[in-house]
Amino acid sequence: MKYDESNPWKNALTQLRNTAEIIDLDKNIQKILEKPAKTLITSFPVNMDDESIEVFEGYRVQHNATRGPCKGGIRYAPDVNLDEVKALASWMTYKTAIVNIPYGGAKGGVVVDPRKISVNELKRVTRRYTYSVIGMIGPERDIPAPDFNTTPEIMGWIMDTYSMIRGHTELSIVTGKSLELGGSLGRLEATGRGVHIVMEEALKQQKQSSKNATIAIQGFGNVGSNFAQIAHQNGGKIIAVTDAHSGCYNPEGLNIPEILDYVTKNPNRTVEGYPNAEIISNKELFTLDVDILAPCATQNQITRENADKIEAKLIVEGANGPTTPLADSILNEKGIVILPDILANAGGVTVSYFEWVQGLQYFFWDENQVNEALKKILVGAFAEVNQMKEKYNTRDFRTAAMALAVHRVARAIQLRGIFP
Ligand code: GLU
Fold it and tell me: Average of pLDDT values for 242-265?
């Protein structure tokens, strides 16, 4: 039977099993990591503007809480499903272990297209979803954050709902909040900034520079646009960007500040209609002969269908799960280096950790402090992943990153022991 690579949870288990074999993981620990610790499926009614009632489905999955409170974003998408959320929750367990911050992994999702409902409906969906998961979340229990299609504004509504029900203002119930509500300086850009830091470390290792490196970016949301801006500021030549609606291409390099300005002013927040570039599709973007390809949209973008058409030298994963295990094998065979999501996009959760700490202490840092601390953690994590790469002689960074993560989580499980 053909391996079904469209299921992210199946792919996450494949990654875990590949790693387990290489590091000779204790089978008992593997059994624990193969199941999420807690899963909640909720259906909740919401009053719509036209006075009808819509019933929405939502999820919260806590994969593992051994190293600390669970941490992970909430995504809003019409096609989000439980297996996707399980996979994303497990990647949070590994991601937080790689950057060695005291968290376990979680993720949430609501089946909704936020563009198809009004702001007031979105607010009510968010508040009612928060109410449905309130027994699971909390600053020492599970701390949500933004993910695909969720924003600082939505985090503010979650914080308000939780705080009203608990009877006191709780800053650290979510991260990725607006600055006025206890958000952290640098959080909005953190994931894109982290992608850039990890990319620079990899290029340095290959004795190359990011100056004039040609870059193609899939996704122009929070991660893709911030990565584009930072790469552009540092001399990178971004020749293509795409979003869910369209794409821009210029082999001489795109004017990123102008595109960002265009997108911000466009009510649909898309690059569609930007006049000073050629149009390019996602499919074409993946085949460009560039130094760096950055998938910054969603999972399962590089599959067995298109992996052999990829000409980039380095892939840096801003999105979660953009490359399937089958595509990984093809790319490894071709000698294309992949900087995996659980390392490359860990900047977001790292600054979320700083935000959580600041909220718990009611003491806030300046932006330099945040950015310096972020860089130190990511540079250190890249070096530790490299040590694993050498120790286990893995040809790819994903297995090395997973080895580091699984070692840390397994050690924590062993030290705590099994209750009762
Ligand atoms: N959703 C982001 C991620 O996948 C951030 C999670 C967080 O900050 O908790 O890493």
Answer: 97
